[in-house]
Structure formats: structure tokens, C-alpha cells
Design a protein that fits this description.
Strand content of chain B: 15-25%
Number of strands of chain B: 28
Distance between the termini of chain B: 40 Å
Number of helices of chain B: 18
Helix content of chain B: 25-40%
Shape of chain B: elongated
Radius of gyration of chain A: 23 Å
Number of domains of chain A: 2
Largest sheet of chain B: 5 strands, parallel
Distance between the termini of chain A: 23 Å
Strand order of the largest sheet of chain B: 7-6-5-11-22
Oligomer: heterodimer
Helix content of chain A: 55-70%
Largest sheet of chain A: none
């Protein structure tokens, strides 16, 4: 067995401390966290060794380690740590650093993680759409055409094909491409770190299928004992997003195949799915926020990175729901700006998905597949 | 003095309900011919005490036998200065441990009363041993411990002679770069300046302290109270008179050349913790090999310690020291300090120091077994570990390695005291304590096996400077107590009230020297003709010499061979064949208190036994066994404190000697057709009182099995 050489990287330690793992150095390796963790595999348990690696600045052992993604941030470990080292937060910080590390391009990754760059992230879509709306002459609301019945129509405010899809489709493709590149790098690193020990135990398709089942059922969430409300909250948001994706798909069909632009009547199946999803999204994200405050003492409130993500999701849900409401109430002066805001939030959600905490959906899934694949479970 | 005996029989504490108190009084008056015999319902009450005081004042009673409760209670009530006071524990031994109103209980009460009266008839009021004494105190060692002890003693008003082997005072603290905060709060800054110079100045300017630098103790002669100590300084000698000695000679580092596997001696960049401390004083930490600044320093804990091949013990201060030295490394913000440990031992409040030191991002710690230090090839070193949290094997790259080596007490190398005692120049049995000047003296840790000599600091036990200063204060107090006691002719711990002293009848001495060899404290020397003589100041009055002497020439005013022999002979022997009579000799330190405690817990003890208290089992004279068996006693049990490696014997060796002597007597018993099993010795600790009744019953059953004493007359 090749003997590993340990040469600590002090810079990495300081980075973890600054990224949200501020109490890292309090850990004295008692292993209470690992004993308490219900989602840790028996063969290579976490988070004790991750705490050790983080304390010793062993970057390569952490960033490309699937274990940091097998953790579901339930905070049982943080709640039981006798020294207050907050292992859950440390792992969260390492995950953030991992996303930054694999981000392609890296510059965008750095920007998303930096609170000072927050205004720039929003300014890009804000200015873009101001220009578009201005070009259409729709900055004065009375110039905006309405439906034959005289109701507000967002597709008349900003024509979907010309002004929405032309922006969002490339953005989505860009995000997808970035995800693909990052995951490819990550998967290669996973294999490289295991090195000679890499031994596939299950084929990829079965691993993928089983992971999808796990995610769909949110099975792992039931294992955590401290922050109990997380399962419901996360499931709501998760399925809400799926629902909204279905809604969007339906909208594409309606527009391009059936030739029916929005607005759609409330009894339309698209609207029903969409509204249920919206309620689920809002309910879910509000539950997420309230859980965080409830568990503040035991698990901590979270940092910028967490709240950026929560903020975006909440923003998307709130602006979307309000846009519909204001349209139905025919308050033009608030409805059009609300729709504009909604577009900004959705843009931010998509464009920066590979670099924000949103990326967890891809990294965690990849790690879970890898874990199944190499028999780590 | 002309003795007038008064017998006072108490009927309180249910004594009166369990036995016939009047009968005891009658025995005292008629059979024992006691002139004054009184009974009362509660002698410890105001009325009872007044009654006795009145007898002392008006009737001329000066020898009191109080048949009531154990001598271990009510000593303030039964304090009659100038009188002999004997406490007969009727309550504990005849009432609480026996069946009330039974024949056995009555017989026991009568036996104990008879024994008590016999004892005072044979004893006398002690007169203290007076001699001219010095109350000056010698302190050996001028480090933090010695200086603290010297200041404590000097500030209490006593003259101190401080002997230091180096040219300046301060000891190891002179080598420190910085120290751990001393206020116990451990907030930043976590390394503070060392200020030993203030203490040195205080010592050197104190009017009660005379300092001898570059000096060693050449000889210590005499005895506590009258010690003649010869101090040699650079060739010339001076003799001072002192009353007690505080041994604070300190330690030296373990010889790291023995740690070859850790690279010491092989690589220049492997240093000990003491060497690292000296390295750090230069400001920047530079590697010895090329003078470059060290950026990755590895600390190997328990280097040559907790290891059967080197030091088997832990040196208590190295973990905290390594944490402190890690912070020295961190004075360079780019450097890392890596501590590799078996355990981190920072007891008490030092845990907070550990927490604070660990919070520094550049101080890294992990558990593992360090197996070797090897060349990394690049000018750096690899520290190889097994069973670490990184995996089964791992190696840490470092550019400087610090071995946390341990403390070796100075007494492991040389006697230091150079006592001119027949038993030897140093403290005996130091191998029991890995060379440290320690002892198992119950509850008094500064005591050693040489009376009047008190050990403190790292020479006694591995410890840090804060603990050493506390130790120094404790030893100083003991030394002061010792000189005051000796001046009054009173013994020291553990018989710290005793005015008696051994008074041998030298005419019958055969100079066999058994007493000289066996005395645990080396209190007996021998003259040119080989005749032993006592140095009373060294004596702790245990009576081991009395037990050892085959001619029975040693006696104390209130404790001698004939006294116990007579008490034994006064015990009743039952007329029925099936009822044995057994004598239990119990030492007053652990064994008898265990009996008392069993009694307080109302545990029943077999009525066949009669307890006799001795000062120490070492005072057991074998003639008592002959006396007892000739009287018709069926068995004898010796109860003493535990002896051996973790001894609890309050006089260090007494219990062990009794056991050894017993081994010699088995053969004789066999020849006399008395089964060896009739005499046995058990070890008992005070907390094992609950085992006592079973122990005794087991012995009684065995004796019953053997059968009655063939010499018993019916």
C-alpha cells in the first residue's frame, strides 16, 4: 500500500475557516459526529475524517471526496458535537469550495461565492431586459397591447419567442454545458482519488436508477433526527421544481405546437399544475426558512452562500405568484414590473445554477451514483 | 508518678440495654482492685465529664479507664491533661457487634474491661524526649520549587539555608523562552514572558534566607531537630545546623541519545523539547542543520515515555509544553506546527489552554503511533506513523522535529541527601517510584521514608511549575510542623501527638541488629563496637524495633511487650470445648478503624474474637504468640494494612515485616504440635470493613475445624 505523505496546506485551512467552517479548529477527533450520523456508510464513515483533513489542510482528500456530498446537511452531528466544532457547517463550507473548484469557468464560480459581487449578478439580467423592454417601447405601460378582452397579457408585454426564449434557451444551454463540464471533471477526480482502489461493484445504469429512486423518495432525509422538518420542506421544493418544469414544457407545447400563447385560463391543466407547484414552492421555501430559524442554536443559521440560494428560490416563487395575482387583479402598474422581476430571478436561477448552491443537485446526485457504483454504501 | 486508677463504665448508646454494666463495675472493684469505680448513663455529656474531672481534681485519680466508646471518637470530651486515659471500646466490640443480652456479649465486655485495666496498670505517663534543637530549615534545590519553599518558610519566620548546584538560582525556568499564562484563564496572549528573576531577587534579598550557589550537600548527619549538614562550595565546606530538610532538587531531561529510532543524534534537525526551548530564545526558529527558518515543525509526544523500554511513566508537563512550543512556531504566520500524540494530557484547567492553542489554524494535531524518523531526501524529514487517523500508515513531512522527552528525577542518579545513616545515603526503595522521591504515606504526600525530610516538586513526581509551587508550599508547612514537634519532643506523622519514645534496656542487648535493619526509617545507627543506638529525632514511634527484638529490650512508656502479653493472659477462655477463643492483633491505622467502621454499620462479628490494638503490625513480638497459646488461646489473627508495591502501611514496612516474621514462626508452631494455620495474617484496608466479619468467621471456622488448643486446661 502506498504510504501517503502528509504536508499540510495552511492556506486551505484558512479558506475553510473563512467559507463557513469557522469552528473547525475546535474538533478534537472524538468521533461523536460519525457515531451520530445516520446517513454515513459503515466502510468509510464521515464526517470525522473530513474534519481531520480540513484541520490539516489536505485539499485533495476533501474536494474530490464523494463523502462530502453523501452528507445531507441534516446537522445531527453539529447538534451533538461536544466542542461546538459544527462539522455539518464545515462540510457545507467544503462543498461550497468544491463547487467553486469544479466551476467551469472558474471566474464565474468565484463571483457567485462573493457577497460583494451580488449586485453585478442581478445587474446583468436587469439591464438586459430594460434594454429589451425599452426597445419594444413597452416602458410606458399604456403602450403595451392587451388581450382582445382587455386583460393584461405578459406574452404581449414581452413576446416569448423573440424576447424570452432567445435569452433563456441559450442561458439554459450554457448552464447545462457548464454542468456537464464540471461533472466530467468531478467524475474523473473521483476515480483518480480512489486510484488503484477504484473497483466498480455495480454497473452505472443500475446505480443511476437506484439513486433516482433514493432521491424521489427522499429516503435519506428520514435518517436525520435533529432538523426533522427538512424532509417535507425539501420534498415540496423539489417536486415543485419538477412541476414547474412540466409546466414550462407544457407551455412550450401550447405555444409552438398548439399555437396558443399565454395568458391561459385558470382551469387549464397547465395552470393547475403550475399553481399547485407554485404553492408547493412557496410553502416549501418558507418552511425551509422557518426550519433554519427554529434550529438556529443546534445547527446554526447558515451563511451567505445558503441564503443566496434560498433568496433566489423564494424570489422566483414569490414574483411568479404575485405576477399572476396582479395580472388577474389588473393592477398594470405593479403587474408588469413584477413580471420583469420574475424574469430577472429566473435568469439568476438558471445562469448561475452551476456555481451556486443549486449545483448540489448535480454534485450530490453524481456522488450518490458513484457511491453506489463503487459499493461505498 | 504514683498511679490512682479510676474505672468509668458508661451505659449510654444502648450499652446498658445489651450488657450488665454493674457487673463490669464489680469486676473492676473486686477482681482488678480499682480504687475508684463509677457508672453513668452518658459520660461524654457535660455531667459525665464533670464527674470525671471532679475525681481527678479532688480524689487524686490520674489514670482513667473509660469503658464506653471507641478511642477514635469523643477525644475532645475525654481530654484530661496530665492523666493516662485508656478508652475501652465496649460499645463497638461488645454491644454493636454482638447479640444484645447474650452471654457472649457479656463475656466480651468483661474481657475488654479487664484488658483495659491491665493496660493502664502496666503503663506510665510519658515524658517527652528533650534535646537542644534547631528550627532552621535546609532547602536543597534553587529552582522554582526550592525558591518557593524557601520563601514560604522564611516568610513564616524561620531561617532557611538554600543550596543550589548551579552558579545561579532559577533552575529550568532560566531556559524558558516564554511560559503558559499563570492566571488559569488562558486567554490570549497564550504565551507570556517568564518572570523568574523576581523570585530570585526575593530569595537573594530575604533576611531569613542564606543562599549557597555552586554548592552541593556533602553530608547530612544527626537527626531531625539536630541535623549537621555539610555544604561544599567549589572545594570548601561549611557545616550548618538545621531541624528539617526540604528536598527540591528537581529533574534532568531523559537522555535522548537512547531514542535513535526517532532520529536523535542521526539528524541534526531532530531536537528535544528542552533544546527547542533554547532554540526559540533566538527569536526566529532556525534549523540546526542549515540555519534556515523552520516552517513545518513536527512534535512527537511521549518520546521515550510510557514505554517499557525507556521511561514507563508520563511526565505530566510535555503535552502542555508542546502546545506552547507550537505557538512559538506560529509566531511566523506561514509556519505550521504538527503535534503527533498518543493522547493529549492537559488535566484540569489546562484543557482550556488546549482548546485555545488548538484554535490557531496552523496548530495541527492527530493521534498516532510514531515509529520512526527518516530522511525525506529534500533536506526535510519524514515522521512515520502507524494507526493514525490518516490511515494504517502515514508519513508527515517536516523540516524540524521536536521530541517531547520526559523528566528524570535527580534522585534516580544520585542520593543527593548523602545521609550518614547506617541504612544508606539516600531514600530507600525508590525503584517503587521509578526513582522519584515519593512515598505512599497516606494523605501526606510530602513525607518520605526519612523523618524530617520532605520532598517537593519534580523530584517527587512529574509536574509543571504551577503544581511545583503548590507542592513547595505544602512541604514547607510540613517542615515547619516537623521542627516544632521535635522541639517539644513530640513525634511527627503519623503519630503526631505521641510523647513516648523507644527506651531500650541496653544491658540485655546482644547487638543482633535486627532492630537496626528493620526500622523503616533508619532511626537506629550503630557505634564502633557494633552496638545499636537510637537517633530519637528520626523515630516515628511505630514500635517495629520492639517487635523485632528477640530479647524484648525495647519499650515505650505506654506500650511494651509485657503490657500486651499481660492483656492477652487476662482474656477469658471458654470452658466448653466447641467454643474457641481467638486473639486478633489489629493495627490502629487501617485495621482497627475497619473494625470500628464495621461496628458502626452494626455488622455482627463472631464472639470468639478479642481485638487488641497495636501501633503498627511491625510491633508484633513473636513472644505474644507463645504467651497466647500457653494461656490456651486457640488461634491468633494479625490484621494489618496492605503491603507490597502499592503499600498502604502507615509506617511503610511494618505490616510486611509482621508477615515475614510470621513465616519464621510457622515451623516452630509445627514442632509444638500446634497447627501453623492457627496463626494467620490478613491485610485489610479501611474501606474493606464489610469484608471483615466474613474474614473473621472464616478464620474462626478454620480454627474450629482444627480443634481446640491441646494446651488448654478445662
Amino acid at each position: 500500500m502506498a504510504e501517503q505523505v502528509i504536508s499540510p496546506d495552511l492556506g486551505f485551512v484558512k479558506e475553510v475557516l473563512a467559507s463557513g467552517g469557522g469552528d473547525l479548529k475546535k474538533c478534537y477527533q472524538c468521533s461523536t459526529c460519525t457515531v451520530v450520523c445516520n446517513v454515513t456508510p459503515d466502510a468509510k464513515p464521515f464526517p470525522r475524517k473530513e474534519m481531520l483533513y480540513a484541520q490539516w489542510g489536505m485539499k485533495d482528500k476533501l474536494i474530490s471526496n464523494p463523502d462530502i456530498w453523501l452528507c445531507h446537511q441534516c446537522s445531527d452531528c453539529t447538534a451533538h458535537c461536544p466542542r461546538g466544532a459544527k462539522p455539518g457547517e464545515v462540510l457545507g463550507a467544503v462543498r461550497k469550495m468544491a463547487i467553486k473548484e469544479y466551476a467551469t469557468p472558474q471566474s464565474l464560480g468565484a463571483m457567485v461565492a462573493d457577497p460583494k459581487k451580488l449586485p453585478i449578478l442581478f445587474v446583468i439580467p436587469a439591464v438586459l431586459y430594460l434594454i429589451i423592454i425599452g426597445a419594444l417601447g413597452h416602458l410606458s405601460f399604456d403602450k403595451i397591447p392587451r388581450t382582445p378582452e382587455g386583460a393584461i397579457s405578459y406574452s404581449k408585454f414581452l413576446p416569448p419567442t423573440a424576447t424570452v426564449d432567445t435569452v433563456f434557451v441559450p442561458v439554459a444551454l450554457f448552464a447545462a454545458f457548464c454542468f456537464f463540464a464540471s461533472v466530467k471533471k468531478y467524475w474523473a477526480d473521483l476515480k483518480r482519488t480512489d486510484g488503484a482502489a477504484y473497483m466498480p461493484k455495480k454497473d452505472l445504469m443500475t446505480s443511476l436508477y437506484e439513486t433516482i429512486v433514493d432521491i424521489a423518495s427522499h429516503r435519506k432525509f428520514t435518517e436525520c433526527t435533529v432538523a426533522k422538518g427538512r424532509k417535507t420542506a425539501h420534498m415540496a421544493v423539489f417536486y415543485a421544481f419538477i412541476g414547474l418544469a412540466v409546466t414550462t414544457g407544457l407551455a412550450v407545447v401550447y405555444l409552438y405546437i398548439l399555437g396558443r400563447p399565454s395568458p391561459y385560463p385558470m382551469y387549464d391543466p397547465l395552470k393547475i399544475i403550475g399553481n399547485i407547484s407554485a404553492v408547493a414552492l412557496l410553502g416549501g421555501i418558507i418552511a425551509v426558512i422557518s426550519n433554519r430559524f427554529d434550529n438556529k442554536e443546534k445547527a446554526g443559521l447558515g451563511g451567505y452562500y445558503d441564503w443566496f440560494f434560498i433568496g433566489i428560490v423564494f424570489g422566483v416563487g414569490a414574483t411568479g405568484f404575485l405576477a399572476q395575482a396582479l395580472r388577474l387583479m389588473d393592477v398594470a402598474i405593479a403587474a408588469y414590473p413584477m413580471y420583469y422581476l420574475h424574469l430577472i430571478f429566473v435568469f439568476v436561477l438558471f445562469a448561475y445554477a452551476p456555481f451556486s448552491k443549486m449545483a448540489h443537485m448535480v454534485y450530490r446526485a453524481t456522488a450518490m451514483v458513484y457511491a453506489r457504483h463503487t459499493g461505498r454504501e | 508518678m504514683e498511679k490512682k486508677i479510676g474505672l468509668y463504665v458508661c451505659s449510654g448508646c444502648s450499652i446498658g440495654e445489651s450488657i450488665n454494666v454493674e457487673k463490669l463495675a464489680t469486676i473492676g472493684k473486686n477482681a482488678m482492685k480499682v480504687p475508684v469505680v463509677k457508672t453513668h448513663a452518658a459520660f461524654c455529656g457535660k455531667e459525665g465529664v464533670e464527674l470525671i474531672k471532679n475525681d481527678v481534681a479532688t480524689e487524686g485519680v490520674n489514670t482513667l479507664v473509660i469503658a464506653a466508646c471507641s478511642p477514635r471518637v469523643k477525644f475532645e470530651e475525654f481530654d484530661f491533661p496530665g492523666c493516662i486515659v485508656e478508652r475501652v471500646p465496649v460499645r463497638e466490640l461488645a454491644v454493636w457487634t454482638q447479640v444484645p443480652q447474650s452471654k457472649d456479649a457479656q463475656m466480651a465486655a468483661e474481657d475488654y474491661t479487664r484488658m483495659g485495666v491491665t493496660k493502664v496498670q502496666k503503663g506510665a505517663l510519658p515524658e517527652p524526649y528533650q534535646m537542644e534543637t534547631s528550627k532552621d530549615i535546609l532547602v536543597i534545590g534553587g529552582g522554582v520549587t526550592g525558591m518557593t519553599a524557601a520563601l514560604e518558610v522564611a516568610n513564616a519566620g524561620y531561617q532557611v539555608y538554600l543550596v543550589e548546584k548551579e552558579a545561579q538560582l532559577g533552575g529550568f525556568m532560566n531556559k524558558l523562552y516564554k511560559q503558559i499564562p499563570t492566571d488559569g484563564m488562558y486567554r490570549k496572549p497564550l504565551i507570556v514572558d517568564v518572570d523568574i528573576s523576581k523570585k530570585v531577587k526575593d530569595v537573594e534579598s530575604h533576611k531569613n534566607i542564606k543562599v549557597f550557589k555552586s554548592s552541593k550537600v556533602e553530608k547530612t548527619e544527626g537527626m531531625p531537630g539536630a541535623l549537621d549538614i555539610t555544604i561544599s562550595t567549589n572545594g570548601s565546606s561549611e557545616t550548618v545546623k538545621a531541624g528539617a530538610v526540604i528536598l527540591a532538587a528537581g529533574w534532568r531531561p531523559y537522555d535522548a541519545t537512547k531514542l535513535e529510532h526517532l532520529g536523535y543524534g542521526k539528524f541534526k534537525d531532530v531536537v528535544t523539547n528542552v533544546e527547542f526551548e533554547e532554540l526559540s530564545r533566538k527569536g526566529k526558529i532556525l534549523r540546526p542543520s542549515d540555519g534556515k527558518e523552520a516552517k513545518k515543525v513536527a512534535f512527537i509526544q511521549c518520546a521515550g515515555q510510557r514505554d517499557p523500554n525507556h521511561l514507563p511513566y508520563c511526565s505530566a508537563m510535555c503535552c502542555a509544553t508542546s502546545l506552547k512550543q507550537a505557538l512559538y512556531v506560529r509566531q511566523n504566520p506561514d509556519a505550521t506546527a504538527m503535534i503527533l500524540y498518543k493522547d493529549i494530557r492537559t488535566p484540569g484547567r489546562l484543557e482550556y489552554y488546549y482548546k485555545e492553542a488548538q484554535n490557531d489554524p496552523g496548530v495541527m494535531l492527530t493521534k498516532g503511533d510514531v515509529t520512526a524518523v527518516n530522511d525525506a531526501g529534500s533536506g526535510n524529514l519524514y515522521v512515520e506513523m502507524e494507526n493514525s487517523l490518516f490511515g494504517p500508515t502515514a508519513k508527515v513531512e517536516a523540516d524540524l522535529v521536536v521530541l517531547a522527552t520526559g523528566i528524570v528525577p535527580v534522585t534516580a542518579d544520585e542520593p543527593v541527601l548523602n545521609l550518614q545513616y547506617r541504612q544508606g545515603p539516600g531514600l530507600p526503595d525508590l525503584d517503587l517510584f521509578n526513582g522519584f522521591a515519593d512515598s505512599n504515606f497516606i494523605c501526606f504526600q510530602y513525607e518520605t521514608r526519612r523523618t524530617g525530610i520532605y520532598a517537593a516538586g519534580a523530584v517527587r513526581q512529574p509536574m509543571n511549575t504551577t503544581e511545583a509551587q503548590e507542592d513547595a508550599a505544602g512541604a514547607a508547612l510540613k517542615a515547619i510542623q516537623s521542627v516544632e514537634h521535635v522541639a517539644k519532643g513530640v513525634a511527627v506523622h503519623p503519630r503526631a501527638w505521641d510523647l513516648t519514645f523507644p527506651d531500650p534496656f541496653m544491658t540485655k542487648c546482644t547487638a543482633c541488629k535486627r532492630c537496626t535493619e528493620e526500622c523503616p526509617f533508619g532511626a537506629i545507627d550503630e557505634d564502633e563496637k557494633g552496638t545499636p543506638f537510637y537517633k530519637i529525632g528520626r523515630c516515628r514511634r511505630c514500635g517495629t524495633c520492639m517487635g523485632a527484638c528477640p530479647e524484648r529490650i525495647v519499650s515505650f512508656k505506654d506500650f511494651h511487650v509485657d503490657m500486651i502479653g499481660s492483656m492477652l493472659k487476662g482474656v477469658s477462655v471458654p470452658s466448653e470445648e466447641e467454643q474457641p477463643r481467638i486473639i486478633v492483633l489489629a493495627c490502629e491505622n487501617d485495621a482497627y478503624p475497619a473494625v470500628d467502621t464495621a461496628a458502626y454499620n452494626k455488622q455482627q462479628i463472631d464472639p470468639a474474637v478479642r481485638f487488641i490494638q497495636l501501633r503498627c503490625m511491625g510491633s508484633t513480638n513473636l513472644v505474644w504468640i507463645a504467651d497466647a497459646f500457653s494461656r490456651g488461646i486457640d488461634g491468633m489473627l494479625l490484621l494489618g494494612c496492605k503491603y507490597g508495591e502499592n503499600y498502604q502501611c502507615h509506617f511503610a514496612k511494618g505490616s510486611e515485616l509482621a508477615s515475614y516474621r510470621l513465616g519464621k514462626v510457622q515451623e516452630t508452631l509445627d514442632r509444638l504440635m500446634l497447627e501453623a494455620d492457627r496463626v494467620q495474617m490478613f491485610q485489610l484496608a479501611i474501606d474493606e470493613y464489610d469484608k471483615l466479619p466474613t474474614m473473621i468467621k472464616g478464620f474462626v471456622d478454620r480454627v474450629k475445624q482444627i480443634g481446640p488448643n491441646p494446651y488448654r486446661t478445662f
